[in-house]
Amino acid sequence: MTNPNNATITTVHRAAFTAGDALKIPTSRILKDDGNLYDGAELPTLDQATALKMYDTMVFTRVLDERMLAAQRQGRISFYMQCLGEEGATVGSAAALTEQDMIMAQYREQGALRYRGFSLEQFMNQLFSNELDLGKGRQMPVHYGSQAINYMTISSPLGTQIPQASGYAYAQKLRGLDAITLCYFGEGAASEGDFHAGMNMAAVHKAPVIFFCRNNGYAISTPANEQFVGDGIACRGVGYGMKTLRVDGADILAVYQATKMAREYALAHHEPVLIESIAYRLGAHSSSDDPSGYRSKEEEALWRKNDPIARFKAWLLRQGWLDEAADKAKTEQLRVDILDALKVAEKVAKPGIEHLISDVYAEPIPALQQQLDELKQHIRKYPDAYPITAGRFE
Amino acid sequence: MAKMNMLQAINNALDLAMAKDDGVVCFGEDVGHFGGVFRATSKLQEKYGKARCFNTPLTEQGIAGFANGMASQGMKPVAEIQFADYIFPAFDQIVNETAKFRYRSGNEFNVGGLVFRTPYGGGIAGGHYHSQSPEAYFAHTPGLKIVVPRDPHQAKGLLLAAIACPDPVIFFEPKKLYRASIGEVPEEYYELPIGKAEVLQQGKDVTVLAWGAQMEIVQKAVDMAAEHGVSCEVIDLRSILPWDADTVADSVKKTGRLVINHEAPLTGGFAGEIAATIQKMCFLHLESPIERVCGLDTPYPLALEKEYVADHLKTFEAIMRSVNF
According to its UniProt record, which protein family does this protein belong to (chain A) (predicted)? Predict the structure, then answer.
């Protein structure tokens, strides 16, 4: 072995520091706030239909978020998480993929899920954990997933999807598939051990995965400057020896272009790429959180101007691809549709009692079957205490 | 049939599984060209290529996470954790991810076919970081299957069954027996049932239950007891999760007594779960309290290993206490 340490030796004769901020990582921006392009900015190839789908998906995400946060406040669902401020990052990246690509998200990427075709009814069934929910009512709201559209079911523990994405992408490569994996996580989750594990595994084993870090400034209440000291998350990609991009997450065209480029590279070279998207979590962490305890209204107001939807809309209008009046009517109709779907989903029954034990294993083990039989006997004795399932089994 | 030690039997099982199914991939620390620190994956890289048998960086959580991802794509990763003592960085990936993959997705995704192979147990002068038996931690996690073989024949058949299993399996290998246990092993592909105990010796006075490396320890004790006129029924549990309560209960209903032996510490050990279940299933048949012969509630010692372990003499004493109660 000629280089057993796998390190490049540039000899000096007196020790010299390399500073923590030595890397100057460029941040790509295409669209200005007013919908004009930056000088020298190059538009990605984008047809009108795709652009409108991206826009509609962002609007859907925002309207759904508004409505469902309100539903949570009314006590109709137990929990909710908004994407507010990050619609451009999630939709722009998802739009750059093909449908064969796997998406492994964290939990705030409903825009990507919608872009893949998750229906309004499917959203509602999951949020109300009813018997039509693909996840059989087992996970808290927003933990979506669907095999049919290659969107891995969300897991609450932070960062666990990162090494999994490396493994999934490695399997795609081994199978010779024309597909990659895109893995979302936040700058807070990048502090988890699984981040290091997953990045290093992907780099060493050459897995075609895009690690998409949504640096949105906050992990619940903890600001990014209490989360890490280095230059964002992007600098770490370089440390793992992988191609790295940083992009303005409120600029959907920049996100789209960067992710397209990353996908092409990952697939052609069987290598991971890290993208750091810089945006701001405008909403609370979740419906259980109150940002007024840790950040100012002034700060929020400043970032509210950096709205990915308004920016993209301005560009679409300039392009002549969007009709303002029709768009307004469409959004109004969407509000109605969402409320209607909500009212339907909340009346659908909860999953049957057999789903307490199904899917723990491919087939229930004997002990589980016995525990279910005993439980049914108990419920028969006290039906009033178990109104969801009592009377729904033989 | 061929004479094999346990490592050869495991290597042979992996070889057959990889030949049978392109989706079977072996990886872990030093697993590639070197064939693992115990050589369980010897020659597999040579035979199946670097893409299907490879070294990983030193990251147990990374290995487990990577394995979860591969299995969820439909492949069958056989991931080695070099020592069971080092499985804990992977605990979250195994307990929160592997075990719940199918359940939490409503069967949209699963990690069936995933096997974690890991050498466990004492008897190699390994002290507390090369000797632990952590099966009870995982037995508390619905969604996992846990298997422990006692000899080469069992190791091959159970490992092939684990790889074929639609549920994820942790396969604990008694490293003390890797080279010490030698036996006749069929050369062809075969599976042994997961979740089924095996009665190794019929008896009428007391049931003696163990698994893995402890089987030969309890056999020694049982032979001593026979010299004292005590007839023991010997059962190898083989699977910790799910465990075969019916076979154990049927035996205890016949003998009226039960002695459980395991290497892991007493408190919170799997013997406690067995004792609780069997006292309920066999209450009116029991002639004496259920005995547990286990490790002490201390870290696994080095210099005083002999004193610590659940050896044949302690087991013999427990058998005699049980029959003389």
Answer: Belongs to the BCKDHA family.
In angstroms, what CA-CA distances link B192 with A3, B295, B324?
A: 47, 29, 37
What domain count does chain A have?
2
Which candidate in B29, B80, B97, B130 is catalytic?
B130
Nearest CA in chain A to B69: A164
Structure tokens belonging to residue B14: 């992996």
Q: Flag whether A391 is in a domain.
A: no
- pLDDT tens for A115-138 read 999 999 999 999 999 999 999 999
Cβ–Cβ of A171/B96 closer than 8 Å? no
| A379 in the same domain as A283 | no
What is the reported pLDDT for A378?
98
| Distance (Å, whole) CA B239 – CA B154 | 11
Which stretches of B29-99 are assigned E, i.e. beta strand?
Answer: 53-55, 76-80
Instruction: Give domain B2-185's CATH number out of 3.20.20.60, 3.90.930.50, 3.30.200.20, 3.40.50.970.
Output: 3.40.50.970
| pTM for this predicted structure | 0.97
Task: Determine, for residues A359 and B93 on separate chains, whether the beta-carbon distance falls below 8 Å.
Answer: no
Report ipTM for this prediction.
Answer: 0.97
Active site residue A294: yes
Do A361 and A272 lie in one domain? The reply is no
The mean pLDDT value for A314-320 works out to 97
**Where in chain B is CATH 3.40.50.970?**
2-185
Check pLDDT > 80 for residue A1.
no
pLDDT tens figures, A31-89: 999 999 999 999 999 999 999 999 999 999 999 999 999 999 999 999 999 999 999 99
Same domain for A330 and A377, yes or no, is no
**What is the rounded distance in angstroms from the CA atom of residue A182 to the CA atom of residue A381?**
50
Please give the Cα distance from B15 to B189 (Å, whole number): 10
- Of chain A residues 360-379, which have a CB less than 8 A from chain B? 360-363, 365-368
| DSSP code of residue B151 | S
**How does strand B53-55 pair with strand B24-28?**
parallel
The pLDDT value recorded for residue A351 is: 97
Q: What is the fold, at CATH topology level, of the domain defined by B198-323?
A: Rossmann fold (3.40.50)
CATH classification of the domain holding A297: 3.40.50.970
Interface contact flag, A162 B77, Cβ < 8 Å: no
Q: Which residue range(s) make up the domain with A49?
A: 27-36+44-345
Give yes or no: B233 in active site: no
Residues of chain B with pLDDT under 70: none
Do B108 and A153 touch, CB atoms closer than 8 A? yes
Does residue A112 form part of some domain? yes
Q: Quick one: pLDDT at residue A384?
A: 97
Is residue A16 in some structural domain? no
